[in-house]
TrEMBL record, chains A, B:
Keyword check for Nucleus: no
SMART domains in alphabetical order: HTH_LACI
Keyword field: DNA-binding, Transcription, Transcription regulation
GO MF annotation, one: transcription cis-regulatory region binding
Protein's UniProt name: LacI family transcriptional regulator
Amino acid sequence: MTESETGVGGRPTLESVAERAGVSRATASRVVNGGAGVRAALREKVERAVAELGYVPNLAARTLVTRRNRAIGVVIAEPEARFFSDPFFAQHLRGISRELAAADNQMVLLLAEDERDHERIGRYLAGGHVDGVLLFSLHRSDPTPETVHRLGLPFVIGGRPGWPGAESDRDLVYVDNDNRGGARLAVQHLRSLGRRRIATITGPLDQTSSVDRLDGYRDLLPDGDADLIAVGDFTADGGIRAMTELLARRPDLDAVFAASDVMASGAIRVLRAAGRRVPEDVAVVGFDDVESIAAWTEPPLTTVRQEIEEMGRLMTRLLLRRLNDPGASAPSSVIIPTGLVVRESA
Amino acid sequence: MTESETGVGGRPTLESVAERAGVSRATASRVVNGGAGVRAALREKVERAVAELGYVPNLAARTLVTRRNRAIGVVIAEPEARFFSDPFFAQHLRGISRELAAADNQMVLLLAEDERDHERIGRYLAGGHVDGVLLFSLHRSDPTPETVHRLGLPFVIGGRPGWPGAESDRDLVYVDNDNRGGARLAVQHLRSLGRRRIATITGPLDQTSSVDRLDGYRDLLPDGDADLIAVGDFTADGGIRAMTELLARRPDLDAVFAASDVMASGAIRVLRAAGRRVPEDVAVVGFDDVESIAAWTEPPLTTVRQEIEEMGRLMTRLLLRRLNDPGASAPSSVIIPTGLVVRESA
């Protein structure tokens, strides 16, 4: 680690600190940079010299020299409430943070809820504090992908980007699960059980994961009744509201495919409160297979498994590869297959 | 916003970009910095010039000039598993992020689970990417407070620091809830209900919040039986394990004070599975009053309320005050009073 200093405006330099402390420049640098391996006695001398001279470490200079912070920004476009209540994010971040830790890169978590947050994040990213960016849970109007693109920061997106032209943009690298195929598996399973009035609870339709799951449902039910489709928002409350709506509109429904486990757990609560047995009267299939929910609902949830942690790991590996070898051709996007996990709810 | 450039090593400068694009230096700077307010046609010209010249923005230079990133690091010394499963953190962060957003400062979230994470965070903080640091959920051996101190970064701690000498260090500013007083309220309440064999489930004893709550319990039960004390870890599983232990050791216990709501919910599950009625056979009091747990256990939880979001807000305000007026005398630490919320479990 080197510490460059310019002495701009007569400011004390690292050399003057080293000289005053009677240590080598390397030792002074190590102390100033918070590094380990310096004996307490020497450290104290350096610290005293820093204090006496009023030395301010020229920290940003390091970035100018190495152009590498060994830090990756992770931008999550969700309010804290959802970020914390949906275990999807914990699993996703675990994949990212483990992969970053293995490569000794710092994970810098940035949450964006509204437009001002996105602006502020854009400013922070423009400040050169991270080497690359992982973006996920994007909504259609989120401005951050464009900002990152303009700044020339390498980035990888979690989930298929949905804005116009995204599909043909070779610079956009994303990792996604096969949402559409997974939804088809869910509906296929419900049909194989003899269910004929299969409802669905979608996620917010400004996210491609929601749209793709709805498309998969429609692939198998092209002449489906619009009354059997209710829009949710990936929260338990949203699942409760949507299920209540569906029961009011179509009391004869015999199955529900919810586009997330969290919403499915809300739906099951409504069904039980309405006296419907799950799965005898209404079969329920979720999506995600998040550890802490799917196996613990009553009855345990049949669901579409997506490899959430693996998705985080893959995104990270693609980004690091891009950073370590900027000359290489852009990696392609990756779609991870989904599978059905059959438990008791369907 | 200024963009300094040096042309080190013959690299293209912002001036050369502006010249090639046929725009002013200010416009080129705005485009390069991701700022808004530049017409699409001009932006394209600048972007083309950037691409053609291979210009790399001298981003870190800005920090050298302003020495202010308008960004605050929030270091949380917990594994993701706990960070996401205990709603305490969501509420705490909500307070911090709202206060930071109001002051237009970016929240930069850094999670530390093991020693290598702390080292990496130390390096990132030394890189000058944030103006100050909020630290919370510290364990006794966490090295980050010392690192931050050595780097000269202003910081505020959430929770009383527990290392030797911390109490007398005037530079250490912290915000805490009255953990000891709150624990006393809980035990007092249980005694007023006529309970005589009051057990407690503690948090991990390398955290002062756990130690202080245990001290409050002991204040009222100075001759208490050690068999009535079980060490937990602030997780539901920890609460389950500790309650199982307590029941095995003292099947005659008639009350439990759990040092967190999450652990109390685990304890209630064990008690019900063992055929004990709550509160008739065993009264249970928790600690925290987190929104999504205390009111939803069966029966609803009597608990010690701490102002979690307010704690986050206060920490942030103290830090921002320190940043905005470095000459002012260090603010004092703040202890927020706790109160008892009586519901049905005791």
